[in-house]
């Protein structure tokens, strides 16, 4: 399958190089103009549910209407309503574990948060079990649960993944995988062990956001290694030995001989927000889909002003740039040949609050996920000169990167990884929520191998941009953006999407990718 796809790509690349001159119409000036509007102070940092949301969505709709795209939401609408849930601690949780009738306080050495619901959680005498890393990875022959039934129990898990999985984070080390697997087995709560006491206490007093109806346990918690060692020792367990056993997959859910009492009170608030969707209906296979995605939101207004009195996180780079990129790709599609599959332009809300808009879409898809060929996500365009490479999060996961690499060669470039795989960036933007439901998904990033100066110039340039602007008050529109690499990337992403849209093949996860089995479960829908 992969060889057949790649041969087709090689031939297509030659055609693209010769026949898609309209892709050159992606305009640095229009990108700059869009960013300038979306990052204006009047948008107040584009926080979901506030004044900036309506301004943003109205602007996006007006752009797509002017281009002649169709509304992509349900029943001819432009918007997909998203219900966000903000939970704010109303009082410190009461938490203790009980050994032989004696209660031991956990309030100062662990933190607990209510799951998606009304904010009230009362747990009494729930058995506590240890389940290693809480990972089920069939292609790696790893299963920390077996046939265990965790109904009504509290499962304690190690942070991250076993050393044998390698140094780079993957889906199996994510909280999403671990809570999903615990929920399948009926767990009432999931508590994660962290080496750092500070991380264990985390954001115990801050509001957190999720989506209404999220698939979450009744509560989640964090506990320090030191506190967990004491808890395990209460009934004679050596927690260091349990950790070593977990690394060797020698632990199945093990009762620790203690129970947990917990009382959580948080104030729930529903925030009504929206994803926005535009589409170009496929000319031959309108019931098959290619999705381009970008998040429109940012983090709003700071509680305290900066040194110059500024309080607005304008989010020009993150992610007015990616939002603008989607508009320009849509323009290229309208000016070019009609795609055979339907192409969706999805602007999601609340990425900065935890990838929530894309999570909502994954739980409430407007277009069937099993017939969605790919997601191409854009989160922060590169503002750099010309590069020899195109950096990609999640390098090595799907056939999409091979397709993209062949196309990149028409620009004299090569697709490479992001250079920081240990950061787990693939799991930290909206494409992840497509991958997690099986849809092959990619996201490009800023490459640092500059044509002029190589990495010796490009890496400090990129690091300087991140330090100066990322999630900072200075991330405002600037007249001196260098859009050279951004335009090149958008041209390639347009070509990739059109190629996928016109193909009768379906992009594939590479053997061993964490999402391969999820996609395989819906193979019949694509035959």
Architecture blueprint of SSEs:
Elements (H helix, E strand, L loop, with lengths): L1 H18 L8 H11 L12 H17 L2 E2 L7 E11 L4 E6 L2 E4 L4 E5 L5 E11 L5 E2 L4 E2 L10 E5 L16 H10 L4 E6 L2 H5 L6 E4 L7 E6 H9 L5 H9 L6 E27 L4 E11 L20 H20 L5 E8 L7 H8 L8 E6 L11 E5 L5 H10 L5 E4 L13 H5 L5 E5 L8 H16 L14 H19 L13 H5 L7
Parallel strand pairs: 6-9, 9-10, 10-12, 14-15, 14-16, 16-19, 17-18
Antiparallel strand pairs: 1-13, 2-11, 2-13, 3-4, 3-13, 5-12, 6-13, 7-8, 13-15, 17-19
Helix pairs in contact: 1-10, 2-8, 3-8, 8-13, 10-13
Short description:
With 527 residues, this protein is of the alpha/beta class. The chain contains 14 helices and 19 strands. The chain has helices at residues 2-19, 28-38, 51-67, 175-184, 197-201, 225-233, 239-247, 316-335, 356-363, 399-408, 431-435, 454-469, 484-502, 516-520, and strands at residues 70-71, 79-89, 94-99, 102-105, 110-114, 120-130, 136-137, 142-143, 154-158, 189-194, 208-211, 219-224, 254-280, 285-295, 341-348, 372-377, 389-393, 414-417, 441-445.
Describe this structure in words.
By secondary structure, this protein is α/β, with parallel strands linked by helices. It has 2 domains: 2-68 and 281-521, 3-Layer(aba) Sandwich (Aminopeptidase); 87-269, Glucose Oxidase, domain 1 (3-Layer(bba) Sandwich). The protein is 31% helix and 25% strand. It is built from 14 helices and 19 strands. It has a 17-stranded mixed beta sheet that branches. The chain has a two-stranded antiparallel sheet with strand order 7-8. Strand 9 (154-158), helix 4 (175-184) and strand 10 (189-194) form a beta-alpha-beta unit. Helix 3 (51-67) packs parallel to helix 8 (316-335). Residues 1-23 have low confidence and may be disordered.
